[in-house]
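Check my protein:
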Amino acid sequence: MVEAGPLVGIVMGSKSDFKVMEGAGQVLSELGIPFETRVSSAHRAPARTLDYARGAEARGLKVIIAGAGMAAHLAGVIASSTVLPVIGVPLSGSALRGVDALLSTVQMPSGVPVATVAVDGAKNAAWLAASILALSDAPLADALRSRREDMARAAEEADKPVL
């Protein structure tokens, strides 16, 4: 895939979230999908977060992946300010081990959807973003099919006797 600018935005509520969210960047890099990474808190810097979301489409982004922990609602705030698909990654950095983040991410009001992956599921968020982009990118769709076939072969190989 050859594009001039980033197609996916990866946003996290704080720098400490990078340990999990870097998995999304790794997957996107492997697939050749250009992305940008930002730290922006929906609660500590709401104006900055809203500006990011409102300008994303004009900057050429097609999908936003947003990761936050506790009940911080980064993905929801972003989704409220753009029509781009937003994929929420609930993060486990709280005493509730991410259940609070999961519920605040998945329980969106009708008309403001956030696709939500598993707690700490940044890699799957990137795979989902790639699937969304593949709807209008045949070579990327072929690459995703090939990766799935590779995964299936690896699973079959793992089932063979080890002795």
